[in-house]
């Protein structure tokens, strides 16, 4: 049973210029992305900044209009709606089922509201009575490991990690079917990151959360996700169960990403693969495989023919012409 | 032990501090702004109790007492503490044969608190003739002239006090009107965007590109002569705020645009909050303080506008009394040479403008305690 199925999702931003604001080009931020998230599963979406992973998240939340494609979401077992096709007015009753954890815990909490009101807001706007709200706030504070007296304080009294806990409590207030976490730990100190990761693991365990975890840091992703989807210039280049992806990457881009993960043990440090050149511009992606100008394994076919996502079995998909012949280095 | 308890109480106080408290704590550190706040409160107190503060009728003319120099209050005489001013005696200048007044130490007019004087309506409600201070006794035409008198023999101090009311409240009225226009049009501009935004922004640009003094002169000249003082007053307020709203509209629009992208606003939207709730619960409280700061910076501009218009003879007209009208009397170099005290009308203008600017600076710095 899938909570979310994204099919051929595209989000293009027009580039306008001149007095008449004519469209002179398009940024293909998301250019045909498909994946699914099963109930209770955490899928990580990783890639460099600018690859379109945050845009995917915002499309699913319908914070942005979708250019084309389908976002089939199941708000309740046995019910499926296509979020890409729902008109904006009909969106509000659906919002409660998908909640978001934001990247920056300093910007995501209204500084003028006390923590209790911040956490209770989703409950309030969805018509939960006041007495029930108060009880639920206490329950949520306990769930994320904050003291009950936090509810009468303002966000400015809390550290980054504590604020992120408040953000998580707010996201969980309505018992959403799906939680979209947009780089939830990348704004935090490393020591605090570990605490928040542990909290998320604990919550996955206790609440059977389904989660889309957007991140650029592969060392964080390894702990929380069941499967990983790697994005490059608006497309998914590889999807695999977490362990398999880390041990035996099948796409050269995944290999370079893994090589960039810092290893704490110097003896286990492998060779560094530094890709040549810059990330491709999504306004004018190169012909063929978007990664070919930087790929160490490039052949002529890569320059002309764009590879499709092919199924390798065991839940693995990769879009590389040479996926079956290359043997790439993973970690641990 | 007790220190730790105190420490805890202090941090809990900080943790539960509202925006207003945080703003105040920060504003308090800005000493100049706090002093300015006191000055401005005093100014408005003077404006509210103007008639009670003025010892003489600001409109009463008396040809015999024209151009009396400022009189000092003498606190002691032979019999001990007895505040008094000297009576006046006419002396003819032997060269010009001009009649000039000189203090007459032989006659003492005692100064008393809560003395009776001309009658007026306090707050427009009840009639009284009690003034904060005044002289007891004295002939007709004599009195206490702290800042001297003008050509028509009117007491400058009393006129200045009454002018404060007109000048400060015209500023307030102008800013209120600007604020309404600015928040409304700026809000629409920032919220809806698109062609509405473009239209409003271009209108603002056109309005701001017109040189203000000629525009005001044109508009003020168009006011009919037959209008009463009150009508002119209202019209001048509207003319002044016609330009004033553009600045405020830009501030409001800018805040709306930046707030729309704020994570906490997006979070409220994703929680399913209605548009109205997002605007009133999340966006408005976030920029109310900025608007207050912008208003306190716009007020002095309003006051200066009224003063310069009236100074040029295009704003309020006598018998209304405002700072600009009082300064108009000081336009003539010959008058000034003989009666330099008429320039005293410039002092409250400078004081008020400086105080408003310092207050505005302090408020702007303290307005966003989370920045």
Estimated structural class of chain A: alpha/beta
CATH superfamily of chain A: P-loop containing nucleotide triphosphate hydrolases
Spans of chain A of at least 5 consecutive residues whose pLDDT stays below 50 are: none
Q: Give the CATH level 1 class of chain A.
A: Alpha Beta
Question: Could you give the count of β-strands of chain A?
Answer: 12
User: How many separate structural domains of chain B?
Assistant: 2
CATH architecture of the largest domain in chain B: Orthogonal Bundle
Instruction: Please state the oligomeric state of the protein chains shown.
Output: heterodimer
Distance between the termini of chain A: 31 Å
- The rough form of chain B would be described as elongated
Return the CATH architecture of chain A.
Answer: 3-Layer(aba) Sandwich
Percent helix range of chain A: 25-40%
Strand order of the largest sheet of chain B: 1-2-3-4
The averaged pLDDT of chain B comes out at 82
Task: Provide the succession of SSEs of chain B.
Answer: HHHHEEEEHHHHHHHHH
Q: CATH homologous superfamily of the largest domain in chain B?
A: MetI-like
* Largest protein interface, residues of each chain: A-B, 31 and 27 residues
Protein name (chain B): ABC transporter permease
Membrane topology (chain B): Multi-pass membrane protein
Domain ABC transmembrane type-1 (chain B): 164-360
InterPro entries (chain B): MetI-like (IPR000515), MetI-like_sf (IPR035906), OppC_N (IPR025966)
